[in-house]
């Protein structure tokens, strides 16, 4: 997820308010630091900070994309390096294993198929568990109760 640049409704509103206040008096001073000059300074400072923030976000997004591209290039070269070792030394060599390759012969897992286990309640004898048989026309299948 990338960061998004942002605008500021407060800056937009303040710029409009500043123009309206200037129409009342260019040098309006309401006391206690509430002056056109102080208001204008804060509006400009906020706008500049927002622009700096958006520039940083843009640079960060560019940096993120660069890192993604470099990661892909590095992964591709890693695969090519391992393939090169396999080409020179073979996939079953010690050098291939040292380079991080896996030996297919050693890592093959035996596939043994075990018969399914049917659970019978300990309170029922095995003969009582097979109560009836259903038929499909070819053979009979015991049904557990």
Key terms:
5 helices, 2 strands, two-stranded antiparallel sheet, mainly alpha, 145 residues, elongated
Percentage of residues in strands: 5-15%
Distance between the termini: 55 Å
**Coarse morphology:** elongated
**Widest β-sheet, arrangement of strands:** 1-2
Helix content: 55-70%
Tell me what the structure shows:
The chain has five helices and two strands, in the order H-H-H-H-H-E-E. With 145 residues, the chain is mainly alpha-helical. A two-stranded antiparallel ribbon has the order 1-2. A hairpin with a 4-residue loop joins strand 1 and strand 2. Helix 1 packs antiparallel against helix 2. The model has no long low-confidence stretch (mean pLDDT 83).
Give the SSE map.
Elements (H helix, E strand, L loop, with lengths): L8 H16 L11 H54 L4 H5 L5 H4 L18 H4 E6 L4 E5 L1
Antiparallel strand pairs: 1-2
Summarize the structure.
By secondary structure, the protein is mainly alpha-helical.
């Amino acid at each position: 997820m990338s960061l998004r640049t942002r605008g500021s409704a407060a800056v937009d509103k303040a710029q409009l308010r500043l123009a309206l206040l200037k129409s009342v008096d260019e040098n309006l001073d309401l006391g206690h630091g509430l002056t056109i000059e102080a208001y204008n300074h804060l509006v400009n400072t906020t706008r500049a900070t927002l622009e700096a923030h958006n520039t940083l976000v843009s640079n960060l997004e560019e940096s993120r994309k660069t890192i993604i591209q470099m990661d892909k290039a590095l992964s591709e070269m890693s695969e090519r390096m391992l393939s090169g070792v396999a080409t020179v030394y073979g996939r079953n060599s010690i050098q291939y294993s040292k380079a991080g390759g896996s030996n297919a012969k050693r890592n093959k897992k035996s596939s043994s198929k075990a018969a399914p286990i049917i659970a019978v309640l300990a309170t029922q004898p095995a003969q009582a568990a097979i109560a009836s048989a259903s038929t499909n026309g070819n053979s009979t299948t015991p049904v557990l109760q």
